[in-house]
Amino acid sequence: MNADEEREFREFVAARSRSLLHTAYLLTGDWEQGRDLLQAALASTARRWSKLRDREQPESYVRRALYHAQVDRFRLLSWGRETVTDTLPDQPSGQVADWADTVVQRQDIMAALRRLPKRQRAVIVLRYFEDRPDNEIAAILGVAQGTVRSQTHKALASLRTTLAEAGPSASSSTDSGRGVIA
Fold it and tell me: How do residues 97-138 score in pLDDT, each as one tens digit?
């Protein structure tokens, strides 16, 4: 990589790393794992920076690298992995809206996202958290648009079921129109 390419890459990282970190967090469900995932994707991108055909769209390349690195990482880590179960804390009987309820709702949504298969999680993150259209999602994941739609349908059905089982704290976030299931 020459000096100009290195400068371009550094500018890209400075401009887009925050958004990419949020995507990595949503894919992994953990900030530290998200940082590691982003670091691996950026390192991979840096090695190929001078060979990128579409220099105007490096972000889609990094997002694709994030997704594929997460899938590869999951395959490596899933062998012999223990299954962790969590129980929800007791819910207050009143419908008092406070920050604690908001935190619990977010935790419920994140837990439900973590239970989704990797491709379904990626589709939900790209669609609802990054507001990307089907054709961009298909290009990032390297699948057909029909696959994106079917994975979205399956993921939403699974999230509805999981959040309904989680109780009223999770379902109230979807009723407000701000949740993932809307």
Answer: 567 777 888 888 888 999 999 999 999 999 998 889 999 999
As a whole number of Å, the CA-based R_g of the chain is: 18
Contacts of 141 (CB under 8 A, 6+ apart): 64, 67, 119, 122, 123, 126, 147, 148
* pTM over 0.90, yes/no: no
The number of C-alpha atoms within 13 Å of 21 and in the hemisphere containing its C-beta is: 11
DSSP 8-class letter at 19: H
> Exposed, middle or buried by CB within 10 Å (0-12, 13-18, 19+), for 59?
middle
Note whether 134 and 147 are within 8 A (CB). no
Per-residue model confidence as pLDDT tens digits over 132-145: 999 999 999 999 99
